[in-house]
């Protein structure tokens, strides 16, 4: 349906133009491809493959007995398999349910227990076995509730697919047989994938030296002067919550040209919002916890619009480092993790979390918040202290020092969720070292398994045994009921295996059934511990649930189920141990608390609350060893081969069970940092799978006489023109905020696409937009600068890493003395603040050298400069003078192949030398090297191209 190359490019780049509906695209484009493959596109059914190699022979299937004529009639009446049948067969293969227990209208989660990871796995199998059908976007997949909806999406038709009754298995049988899936009357095929229960033995293939321990550090982060995009000229920004601050903030924004208003509720289809509700005073944990629910509900209102359109979501919340230990505000600390999850799920939206000191005077606070929104740059999470200092957080790799254990042999430690999953090997390793007495709390009943399960191993065999026993008793189980019985058997076995392993190494361990979400059960269990086992000296909260669903699709009940397991569980455990003399308080958290995660906003928020509540507990009880362990993805568990492949593509290491167990035991004996990430480097790409790589970062800048008056000295034909060196500075500031903690090594391929003439400089100002998009591996960003009308002006590529000086040796240039022609009258258009060549050392065909003025000597504004932009511009002026000599007329820099900031200059003069590399028809190429007063190279601009222009 596309008529031009531009339309194709727009579609491939997912440009701002709305994509056509999936159903329209699928119907119009599948047919030609299907025809080329010999596939019929009728009612979504797949034609018989020409080779017939992958198609079951119907004559050998008892369901088709009755002669060749009957078989031929069956062959002509229906294709060998249909899309619905193929999907059902794959679901049977991946879940272990018999095909005849399945139908298309079953709820994926409620009936089948298919989570987001299993959905991706199932679709990967569909892609492999039917590559001609349309692909389903992961975000679209997350919103689907039934198999029928998946079939409809795969068929590319908005019309509901024809129902396939549960009993109509004869149409499913051929596809099922092709996949090795049996009906319930026979034996279930063994699933090809590893079971979800983590294996206790390590797979050496998963070991990765990139695993590390990262501490969270708060660091100064001066504002860069670039603002959030989409605020000027848009619909009024809704400011919600906090009755006193809201009007003051609106007034500040309006005074700076941003339309804003106070709203009690979010208007329909709103795209911009500032949430102030987290600043309200709270006097109970319940009141603080309600802030998390309120913020999530607001994000869910924004999500249907912002998950596919540009917009702004900002949340202001209390800076817990500025609040006393007695405050309950930490229980509302999930807001930053929500914002980071929004940023991943909404790749076109700008999101920011701003922590503020609640004691700051409200008028001042309103000014600082406006400053941050309009000039704070791209950091998603920042803090504004009462003295105006601006900070952000970075993750710093530091090894553990496991030489200070606090738990002595025989001390009683209570562990929630410790009998199963990845916690179990952690406890076993710790028990070997510290010999505590362990009490494991879990929601599962430790009940004897049915006699008929004895000696039956393997998940599919157990499921088959349970199903056959139910059928023999006349029961007709649903998949969900069968799965519940299977989970009970597997849970009991895993708990018993953990207790047996602990006993084998001489560790006294007990299991008590108690759900941490139930305060009464927790209290009763811990009373039993004290009376029967001994005083409680340690508490490890490892219980938790995950139920992936995007913000737009997650219900209150789903949010509460995940959130409560972590947050309410911790609250009940802390309340029940308030009178105990604890030595240790630890929690299993997640890297998602630091980075957010697609589909896991609730889990990320809950884990962020855990970390902040634990920090508050340490302030209350300084003698307490406190650890919040933010784990990355573990080998086994939920990481199936599909996710493992994706993590490998992103460079995200998985944690082998034995290595993670050693990391846990090390932390129990480490007296250092409280809040940690364990695993790969914490960054958004380390989490799920779509958001970070598809995200387009963006910032905006407003330029006028008041903000950039010194640009009056850089005019052409009466209008200020933005210098190339200043463009490089803006790019460097932008990437500093987008990738905090990483160092910009170089800008590559900095190109002038169209010079920026500031036509509104003296009349309302000009707006520019800076965009960045990640390359694979996240060590580079593609950058571009656009005008307010969308015109491209500059492009470049940012590379991160330690500074690196070019290895090329520079010859000593033979220079001639300058002839004395006034540079700033006859040769260069620069005036006033841009007269940056202090003295010219000399010039020749080999190049040019000079002593320059930097930003301080030139009296440029005091800012947090990344480059010495004045000195850089002075060097580019040298390249122009060289071009004057070699080309015989006016010229301008048009590109820089590579630009490196090597070191901060020491006070004193800066010198620059432009070395000739090439002189061609109407162009020159030079390398410019800048040195400070100590003779050290501080910057390089390599491959600077100048082109002749008309006088």
Describe the structure.
There is one protein chain. The protein has 951 residues and is an alpha/beta fold. The chain folds into five domains: 21-178, no CATH class; 219-393, NAD(P)-binding Rossmann-like Domain (Rossmann fold, 3-Layer(aba) Sandwich); 412-450 and 496-691, Rossmann fold (3-Layer(aba) Sandwich); 695-800, Thiol Ester Dehydrase, Chain A, CATH 3.10.129.110; 823-948, Roll (Thiol Ester Dehydrase, Chain A). Helices cover 33% and strands 21% of the residues. The protein is built from 26 helices and 30 strands. The strands form four sheets. Strands 5-4-6-7-8-9-10-3-17-16-15-14-11-12-13 form a 15-stranded mixed beta sheet, with helices on both faces. Strands 18-22-23-24-21-27-30-29-28-26-25 form an eleven-stranded antiparallel beta sheet. The protein is elongated, with a radius of gyration of 32 Å. The two termini are 48 Å apart.
Q: Which percent band covers the strand fraction? A: 15-25%
Please summarize the sheet with the most strands: 15 strands, mixed
Average pLDDT level: 83
Q: Report the CATH C-level class of the largest domain.
A: Alpha Beta
| Rg measurement, Å | 32 Å
Helical content stands at 25-40%
Secondary structure tally: strands: 30
Output the CATH homologous superfamily of the largest domain: NAD(P)-binding Rossmann-like Domain
Number of domains as seen in the coordinates: 5
Overall geometric form = elongated
Q: What is the topology, as strand order, of the major beta sheet?
A: 5-4-6-7-8-9-10-3-17-16-15-14-11-12-13
The CATH topology of the largest domain: Rossmann fold
Which structural class should the secondary elements be placed in? alpha/beta
């Amino acid at each position: 349906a596309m008529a031009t190359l531009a339309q194709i490019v727009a579609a491939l780049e997912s440009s701002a133009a709305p994509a056509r509906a999936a159903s329209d695209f699928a119907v119009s484009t599948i047919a030609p491809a299907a025809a080329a493959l010999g596939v019929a596109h009728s009612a979504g059914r797949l034609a018989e493959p020409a080779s017939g190699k992958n198609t079951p022979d119907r004559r050998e299937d008892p369901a088709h007995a009755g002669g060749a004529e009957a078989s031929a009639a069956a062959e002509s009446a229906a294709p060998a398999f249909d899309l619905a049948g193929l999907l059902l067969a794959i679901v049977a293969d991946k879940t272990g349910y018999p095909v005849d227990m399945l139908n298309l209208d079953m709820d994926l989660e409620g009936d089948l227990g298919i989570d987001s990871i299993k959905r991706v796995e199932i679709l990967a199998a569909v892609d492999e076995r039917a590559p001609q059908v349309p692909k389903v976007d992961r975000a679209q997949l997350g919103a689907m509730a039934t198999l029928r909806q998946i079939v409809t999406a795969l068929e590319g038709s908005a019309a509901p697919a024809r129902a396939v009754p549960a009993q109509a298995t004869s149409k499913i049988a051929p596809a099922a047989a092709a996949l090795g899936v049996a009906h319930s009357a026979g034996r279930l095929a063994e699933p090809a994938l590893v079971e979800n229960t983590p294996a206790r033995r390590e797979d050496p293939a998963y070991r990765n030296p990139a695993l590390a321990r990262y501490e969270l550090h708060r660091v100064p982060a001066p504002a860069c002067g670039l603002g959030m995009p989409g605020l000027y000229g848009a619909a009024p920004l809704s400011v919600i919550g906090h009755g006193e601050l809201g009007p003051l903030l609106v007034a500040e924004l309006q005074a700076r040209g941003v339309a804003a208003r106070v709203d009690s509720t979010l208007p329909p289809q709103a795209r911009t919002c500032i949430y102030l509700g987290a600043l309200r005073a709270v006097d109970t944990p319940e009141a603080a916890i309600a802030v998390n629910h309120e913020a999530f509900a607001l994000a869910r209102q924004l999500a249907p619009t912002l998950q596919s359109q540009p917009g702004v979501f900002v949340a202001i919340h209390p800076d817990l480092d500025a609040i006393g230990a007695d405050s309950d505000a930490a229980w509302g600390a999930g807001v930053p993790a929500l914002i980071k999850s929004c940023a991943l799920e909404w790749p076109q939206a700008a999101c920011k979390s701003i922590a503020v000191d609640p004691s700051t005077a409200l008028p001042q606070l309103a000014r600082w918040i406006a400053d941050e929104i309009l000039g704070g740059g791209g950091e998603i999470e920042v803090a504004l202290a009462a003295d105006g200092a601006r900070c952000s957080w970075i993750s710093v790799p530091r090894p553990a020092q496991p030489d200070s254990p606090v738990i002595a042999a025989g001390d009683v430690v209570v562990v929630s969720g410790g009998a199963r999953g990845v916690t179990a090997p952690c406890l076993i390793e710790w028990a070997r070292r510290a010999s505590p007495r362990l009490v494991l709390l879990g929601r599962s009943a430790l009940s004897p398994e049915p006699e008929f399960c004895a000696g039956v191993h393997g998940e599919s065999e157990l499921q088959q045994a349970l199903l056959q026993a139910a059928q023999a008793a006349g029961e007709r189980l649903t998949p969900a009921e069968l799965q519940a019985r299977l989970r009970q058997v597997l849970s009991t076995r895993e708990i018993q295996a953990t207790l047996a392993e602990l006993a084998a190494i001489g560790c006294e361990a007990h299991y008590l059934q108690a759900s941490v979400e139930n305060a009464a059960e927790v209290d009763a269990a811990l009373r039993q511990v004290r009376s029967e086992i001994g005083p409680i000296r340690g508490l490890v909260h490892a219980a938790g649930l995950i139920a992936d669903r995007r913000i737009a699709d997650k219900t209150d009940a789903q949010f509460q189920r995940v959130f409560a397991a972590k947050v309410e569980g911790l609250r009940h455990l802390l309340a029940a141990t308030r009178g105990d003399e604890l030595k240790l308080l630890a929690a299993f958290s997640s890297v998602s608390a630091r980075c957010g995660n697609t589909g896991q906003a609730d889990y990320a928020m809950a884990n962020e609350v855990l970390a902040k509540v634990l920090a508050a507990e340490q302030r209350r009880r300084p003698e307490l060893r406190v650890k919040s362990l933010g784990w990355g993805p573990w080998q086994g568990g939920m990481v199936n081969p599909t996710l493992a492949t994706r993590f490998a593509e992103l460079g995200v290491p998985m944690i082998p069970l034995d290595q993670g167990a050693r990391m846990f035991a090390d932390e129990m004996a480490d007296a250092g940092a409280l809040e940690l990430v364990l695993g790969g480097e914490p960054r958004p790409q380390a989490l799920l799978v779509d958001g970070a790589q598809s995200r387009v970062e963006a910032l905006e800048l407003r330029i006028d006489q008041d903000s950039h008056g010194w640009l009056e000295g850089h005019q052409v034909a009466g209008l200020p023109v933005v210098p190339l060196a200043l463009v490089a500075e803006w790019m460097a500031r932008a990437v500093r905020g987008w990738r905090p903690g990483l160092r910009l090594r170089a800008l590559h391929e900095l190109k002038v696409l169209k010079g920026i003439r500031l036509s509104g400089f003296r009349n309302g100002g000009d707006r520019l937009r800076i965009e960045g998009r990640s390359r694979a591996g996240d060590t580079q960003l593609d950058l571009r600068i656009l005008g307010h009308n969308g015109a491209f002006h500059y492009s470049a590529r940012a590379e991160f890493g330690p500074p690196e000086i070019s290895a090329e040796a520079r010859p000593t240039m033979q220079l001639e003395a300058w002839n004395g022609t006034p540079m700033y009258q006859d040769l260069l258009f620069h005036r006033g603040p841009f007269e940056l060549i202090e003295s010219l050392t000399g010039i020749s065909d080999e190049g040019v050298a000079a002593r320059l003025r930097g930003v301080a000597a030139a009296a440029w504004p005091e800012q947090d400069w990344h480059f010495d932009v004045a000195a850089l511009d002075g060097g580019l002026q040298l390249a122009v003078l060289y071009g004057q000599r070699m080309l015989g007329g006016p010229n301008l820099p048009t590109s820089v192949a590579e630009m490196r900031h090597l070191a901060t200059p020491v006070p004193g003069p800066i010198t620059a030398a432009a070395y000739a590399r090439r002189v061609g028809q109407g162009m020159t190429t030079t390398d410019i090297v800048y040195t400070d007063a100590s003779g050290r190279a501080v910057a390089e601009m390599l491959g600077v191209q100048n082109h002749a222009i008309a006088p």
